[in-house]
């Protein structure tokens, strides 16, 4: 069995003592006890423990044939539709535990790494490319059930199409190629969960043009010269009653700084090769498999949002209003559309030359792009239905104080006591209006790239010849003779 337990994960990350900066100070001591990280690390540990739960075991692992070991399902490179479905089921077990609110639960990057490892033919015989390093690293990650953060995008200082002409001193780049490896200096935009994973996988941003920016590697989070500088935390307080979501799932985002970081050769997957860097992203298996993981999670998250909306409707008894029904139906339509697109991607999956069963990326792109646009509307619907209930949220301490009884009475809902009603609305607030909730909205909008450019990709890659031929055929038939 090579699946870690929660406490093994916590222990391993604590021992790394990676350089993580919060509020102007370097984190000292066990990071899993730090107020900013303890909630999310506990949740992550619970995910690892779920791998060992007897009644879930069949869903959580597969038998690795070469070693005979049981391996976490999210590392599986599927060879059949049934295996693709098994991946989805496992992803959704973890997503259900976090209500889909941890975008970077370990299955996200395990999926990415499996997809990279299944795309190594793109690197074969190309200059400065090391497909065997990637394959070996994939095996190593499986053998230790490693956790990962990742960073792709360069800092946001000049997004003009002509930015590449300007001298750039911020982007992480190769500054030395020496006997021991390559040396990286500069920064990458951000890494969600930066500093609380075993390793960080670093890839070129899609569409780069400068060879020194074209690289891919993985290094331990405590590599010398590597710094994770965190944003302000969105945890309001520790209480699961007051802050039910942020106290457990605030993943944190960090800027990643490389101060002359040495990447040993055996960890370099490619470098100084713009053509391969762009092809690896565009033509490899990363996009379809990452999208499959994402939509599997988003389906669970949508179910959670729908549940909250319907409970609000129940709690203040507003079901009879037609606009209320149509607003909840908007969420139902989003959920059913995502579910259908996910299944279509599996039905239309095709085995590639290497025998990998690759989900159809088009329905998945459509699902993610729609979600990017629809997610803010779903949170808006919760606000519209909840109205003042979204802010009249006395804390736990008020209910246990001398005025608790009065609050129980005056804040009661329709067939629900005051304490339970406030608990439900606190959940809705944390999802839609707190700092944590707003970050969730931004995350769903942007984490897989800019929605505008994603819709451009769909347009540019969609087979439009068939519908055009269809119309031309009709025009031909109706031509005046
Ligand atoms: C909460 C959160 C977590 C994230 N986590 C990670 C992570 O863990 N790892 C990681 O690598 N990345 C992560 N990202 C980064 C994510 O990939 C980027 O936010 C995304 O690719 C958009 O890039 P940007 O933020 O630099 O926006 P920009 O590219 O700077 O876009 C800003 C605005 O300019 C417009 N614009 C810019 N360029 C163009 C263009 N060429 N054509 C048309 N319009 C343009 C955009 O439409 C947008 O409106 C995360 C982002 C968020 C918000």
UniProtKB/TrEMBL annotation:
| Residue stretches in coiled coil | none
Where the record annotates domain HpaB/PvcC/4-BUDH C-terminal, the positions are 277-475
EC number, as in UniProt: 1.14.14.9
Please report the stretch or stretches of sequence annotated as the HpaB/PvcC/4-BUDH N-terminal domain.
Answer: 5-269
The Gene Ontology terms for molecular function here are: 4-hydroxyphenylacetate 3-monooxygenase activity
Q: What class of enzyme is it?
A: oxidoreductase
Gene3D superfamilies in UniProt: 4-hydroxybutyryl-coa dehydratase, domain 1, Butyryl-CoA Dehydrogenase, subunit A, domain 2, Butyryl-CoA Dehydrogenase, subunit A, domain 3
Keyword line: FAD, Flavoprotein, Oxidoreductase
InterPro entries recorded: Acyl-CoA_Oxase/DH_mid-dom_sf, AcylCo_DH-like_C, AcylCoA_DH/oxidase_NM_dom_sf, HpaB/PvcC/4-BUDH, HpaB/PvcC/4-BUDH_C, HpaB/PvcC/4-BUDH_N, HpaB_Deino-type
Query: What protein is this chain from?
Result: 4-hydroxyphenylacetate 3-monooxygenase, oxygenase component
Species this protein is from: Halobacillus seohaensis
Organism classification: Bacteria, Bacillati, Bacillota, Bacilli, Bacillales
């Amino acid at each position: 069995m090579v699946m870690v337990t929660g406490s093994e994960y916590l222990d391993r990350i604590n021992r790394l003592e990676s350089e993580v900066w919060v509020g102007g100070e370097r984190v000292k001591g066990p990071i899993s006890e730090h107020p900013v990280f303890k909630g999310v690390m506990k949740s992550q540990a619970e995910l690892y423990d779920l791998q060992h739960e007897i009644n879930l075991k069949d869903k959580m692992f597969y038998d690795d044939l070469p070693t005979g070991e049981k391996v976490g399902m999210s590392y599986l490179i599927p060879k059949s539709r049934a295996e693709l479905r098994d991946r989805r089921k496992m992803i959704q077990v973890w997503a259900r535990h976090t209500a889909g609110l941890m975008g970077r639960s370990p299955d996200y990057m395990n999926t990415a790494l499996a997809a990279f490892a299944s795309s190594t033919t793109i690197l074969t015989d190309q200059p400065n490319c090391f497909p065997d390093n990637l394959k070996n690293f994939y095996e190593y990650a499986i053998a230790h059930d490693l956790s990962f953060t990742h960073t792709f995008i360069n800092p946001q200082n000049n997004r003009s199409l002509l930015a590449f002409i300007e001298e750039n001193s911020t982007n992480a780049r190769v500054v030395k190629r020496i006997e021991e490896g390559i040396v990286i200096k500069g920064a990458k935009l951000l890494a969600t969960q930066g500093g609380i994973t075993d390793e960080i996988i670093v890839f070129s941003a899609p569409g780069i043009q400068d060879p020194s920016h074209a690289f891919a590697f993985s290094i331990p989070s405590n590599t010398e010269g590597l710094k994770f500088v965190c944003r302000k935390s969105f945890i309001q307080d520790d209480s699961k009653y007051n802050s039910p979501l942020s106290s457990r799932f605030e993943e944190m985002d960090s800027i990643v700084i490389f101060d002359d970081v040495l990447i040993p050769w055996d960890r370099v997957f490619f470098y100084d090769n713009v053509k391969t860097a762009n092809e690896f992203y565009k033509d490899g298996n990363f996009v379809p498999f990452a999208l499959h993981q994402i939509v599997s999670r988003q389906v669970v998250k949508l179910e959670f949002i729908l549940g909250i909306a319907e409970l609000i409707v129940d709690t203040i008894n507003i079901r009879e209003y037609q606009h209320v029904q149509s607003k909840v139906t908007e969420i139902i339509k989003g959920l059913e559309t995502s579910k259908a697109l996910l299944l279509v991607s599996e039905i239309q999956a095709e085995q590639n030359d290497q025998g990998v069963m690759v989900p159809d990326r088009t329905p998945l792109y459509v699902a993610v792009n729609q979600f990017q646009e629809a997610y803010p509307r779903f949170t808006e619907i919760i606000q519209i239905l909840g109205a003042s209930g979204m802010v009249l949220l006395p804390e736990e301490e008020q209910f246990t104080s001398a005025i608790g009884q009065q609050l129980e009475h005056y804040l009661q809902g329709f067939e629900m006591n005051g304490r339970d009603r406030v608990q439900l609305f606190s959940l809705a607030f944390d999802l839609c209006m707190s700092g944590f909730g707003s970050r969730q909205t931004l995350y769903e909008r942007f984490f897989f790239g800019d929605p505008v450019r994603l819709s451009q990709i769909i347009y540019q890659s969609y087979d439009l010849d068939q519908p055009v031929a269809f119309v031309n055929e009709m025009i031909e038939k109706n031509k005046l003779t």
